[in-house]
TrEMBL record:
Cell compartments where the protein resides: Cytoplasm
Pfam families the UniProt entry points to: DNA_pol3_beta, DNA_pol3_beta_2, DNA_pol3_beta_3
Keyword DNA-binding: yes
The name this protein goes by in its record: Beta sliding clamp
Species the sequence originates in: Legionella drancourtii LLAP12
Length: 367
């Protein structure tokens, strides 16, 4: 038996932080539960779906009692949410039942033994470093959209982190496009790891919820770990070899388009309205000093817009998926970008003239 009291306002935030790791598939009953541990007037909250694990801690009044249980995550969150904002519920665990008391309200939840909760095992780390939170967030935000959804090639269903002595590269590809983001740093051990899609999505959510200046990263043979002031995040790694992405970056492109990013983005957003509903195909027509965007569909409808641009090279027509290009443009701020091209059937390299840490490659389409 153990008992503790905690303020709703202190409890709800860590609950919602950890809830992202609760198993939604309900493959095992205990994975739908939070693991609660009480020790030294601290409540430790953990959730896992066997792929990712998130834990947080919060101060409570436990009267020097200790113990551990697992409780139904969704029901527990719903109960705590339903209480008045100023509530400080009292929680008592006895004979397999967790009783939550607040004023004249009382809730009894069935629990499962903590001994059966599948926590990840500690392992030796090959790389450890501290990194600015915003830098890590930008690395992920600038690349995650290019991950594949459900490809049989498992290495496409994640985000590749390439640690080199002076640089960290984040890379994602679905086979039709590739996104590369880099961060210059020093004193890093060589390490290559592939984060699963869900782990990346949870990292983005968590990093957006905190205001830490720096976070700590660690990676071993099979796990990736991030530690902040508010939570600890662990993710299994995808056991697959990521392709040599540097070889996919186009070289010696003899045609270039330099144009204001916001101008191109607004024009493309208009043109795509009449593009084919599924393919979102748009033709880019490069002429001296001019870039013309052309879209049409099965209803014989057409949209055309010509933009003044700084161009180099011979005339060229090339088709591509407008959604892919809009995804890229949304990650550039104001300023000019460069599109490097060579032939109708060759990939397009897109870079910012303001920041050389980002590269995007899009495969062409036949129109």
């Amino acid at each position: 038996m153990f008992e503790f009291t905690i303020k709703k306002e202190d409890l709800l935030t860590p609950l919602l932080t950890v809830a992202g790791a609760v198993d939604k598939k309900q493959s095992l009953a205990i994975l739908s539960n939070f693991l609660f541990k009480i020790a030294d007037n601290l409540l430790f909250i953990t959730a896992t779906d066997l792929e990712i694990e998130i834990s947080a801690q919060v101060a409570c009044e436990s009267r020097n009692t200790t113990g551990a249980i697992t409780v139904p995550a969704k029901k527990f969150i719903d109960i705590i949410r339903s209480l008045d904002d100023q509530a400080s519920p009292n929680l008592v665990f006895d004979n397999g039942i967790l009783t939550i008391k607040q004023g004249r309200s009382s809730f009894k939840l069935t629990t499962l033994p903590a001994e059966g909760y599948p926590l990840s095992e500690d392992e030796c780390n090959d790389v450890e470093l501290s990194i600015p939170r915003l830098v890590l967030l930008q690395l992920l935000q600038a690349t995650h959209f290019a991950m594949s959804q459900q490809d049989v090639r498992v290495f496409l269903n994640g985000l590749f982190l390439d640690f080199e002595p002076n640089i960290i590269s984040a890379v994602a590809t679905d086979g039709h496009r590739m996104a590369i983001s880099r961060y210059q740093c020093s004193h890093i051990s060589d390490k290559k790891l592939l984060l699963p899609k869900k782990g990346v999505q949870e990292l983005l959510r968590l990093l957006n919820c905190i205001d830490d200046e720096n976070v700590s990263l660690a990676a071993g043979k099979s796990h990736f770990k991030l530690v902040s002031s508010q939570f600890v995040f662990l993710s299994k790694l995808i056991e697959a070899r990521f392709p040599p992405y540097a070889k996919a970056i186009p070289r010696n492109q003899d045609k270039q388009i330099i144009i204001d990013c916001s101008v191109l983005k607004r024009a493309l957003s208009r043109i795509v309205i009449l593009a084919h509903e599924k393919s979102k195909a748009v033709m880019l027509h490069l002429q001296p000093g001019l870039l013309t965007l052309i879209a049409n569909n099965n209803e014989q409808e057409e949209a055309v817009e010509s933009l003044v641009a700084e161009t180099q090279g011979d005339e060229l027509k090339i088709g591509l998926n407008a959604t892919y290009l809009l995804d890229v443009l949304s990650h550039f701020g104001d300023g000019q970008i460069r599109l490097s091209l060579s032939q109708t059937d060759s990939s397009i390299l897109i870079e910012s003239l303001e920041n050389d840490n980002y590269q995007y490659i899009i495969m062409p389409m036949k129109i």
